[in-house]
Amino acid sequence: METKTYITISEATLGYKKNKQNVEVLKNINLNFNATDFIGIVGLNGTGKSTLLKTLCGLLAPLNGNIYINNKNYNQLTTLELAKQISVVLTEKISGFNLTCFDAVAMGQLPYTSLFNTLTAQNYTVINNAIELCGLKNHQYKLLNELSDGLFQKTMIAKCVAQQTPIMLLDEPSAFLDYASKHELFLLLQKFTIQQQKCVLVSSHDLDLVLKYCTKLLVVNNNSAELISVVSAPKNSIFIELSGGHFK
Amino acid sequence: MFKSNISKFIILLTLFLVGALLSLTMGGSQSFNVLDADTNNFIFWQIRFPKTITAILAGSTLSIAGLILQLMFRNPLAGPYVLGISSGASLFVAITFLAGNSFHLFSNYFFGKSMVVISSIFGSLIITFLILALSKKISNNVILLLIGLMLSQICGALQGFLEYFANPNSLKAFVIWGMGSLGGTTNLDVLIYSPIAIIGLVAVLFFIKPLTAFLLGENYATNSGINYSKNRFYLILISSILTGVTTAFCGPIAFVGIAVPILSRIIFKTSNQKTHVISCILIGSCVLLFSDALCHHLSKTAILPINMITTFVGAPLVIYLLFKSKQW
Asked: Is the ipTM reported for this complex over the cut 0.85?
């Protein structure tokens, strides 16, 4: 079976606008991400991990170049069409307004509901499956601020699952998690890439986790991004620098 | 869970009807029965009826405006009055009102009223956009409240400055309006007020989905396929129309906009915004209908200003929430 290319970035410059001036974070990058890819994005803070993820999910516009999502030109996709292709877990913490775990997961179905956001039986099936898959069944009626960091992170991942997108992006999901939760989280993501042929991009500072579970590494440094295999990572000069030489 | 929600709605609906009846039996005269039929008729249709309709409209519009602001700013302490939006509306009404009276612009009733309504909505819009621009630089809920308070003070000071130069006749009418009152509207006023208010309230129903998405904040809303800035613009427009039109006819009414959505979340314990839109309309109406009844009941000789009652209910609720620091 031929693997499908989900994301193509060609000669693109990514960054953001500050005081009407372009701040270029990643310059002229060329990348391909395929189905079943589990990509770990590593790099120092401020090198462009979040910029890459935010650009892909439509929160930042690329400054230059072309991006193709599922062979469609990124610039021609509407917000809604993009939401059906890419789901994202960000670092922000959400709580209040009576939001329960179930409500947050149900937000994943927003791109598919009618004008008045009435959930149909089909919507409920998708949401309940996502809750079950992420092991949140016993916590679904808890308020978001009652959840532990690990459960909250799982809730947001369940939201992505409920969004039924081929591509999932996660921005530092393992920060603030305890040892066991970190491994559970990466195992869960690994399952999505293998069982559902999703393409998962996850940025993380936990190098050992990334090496253990991911299929490829995206090393971000000095305005550039390089895709390397997990096996070659310990010999990569930037990776050695990142690990402080503690990886042997 | 669905069944208990229905029973809550039935209780609210009953309270609403009781409040409406109570409001219809008060005002105009304390000794209703001893007067002749013509006077009774006049009191009922020309004084009590428009007052009751005004209470319902004002309660619904301010509560929904508060609900929109709270979801948009993701701040349970937002509301048209505490953010200074009502004061902005008042200031622009003051400018129109006092200028209009000095230049005799208001000889035509409909022209004069429309000018007041338009300037009131315009004032609400300006303050809302100002708050929005400022809120991007801060993330703290309480600081947003303080900024609203300062804006409100600035508008108040400017308004005081205008009043200083106003002629005594127009000043008196304006000061009474500024204290906030449900009884100042005539049937003709209601004829202009109700269509604008109802259009605003119905429009909100078409923004249930963006309002729901706003619960997760700008980034997640965008990732849910919601065009954030477009929807935010329309929602600001709607909340400004709702606040503006009510302020134009009733003056600035305190704390209804902030307290009712909070009450609704406490009562219904859900994040379903469809439930909250309907319950805010009912609870908001109830609050103003009963406040109005209380105003008439507490004083035999004069009608107390409605803001006195709403502040006594709303302000302690806000203080309670600040202490509790749990987000509603």
From this structure: yes
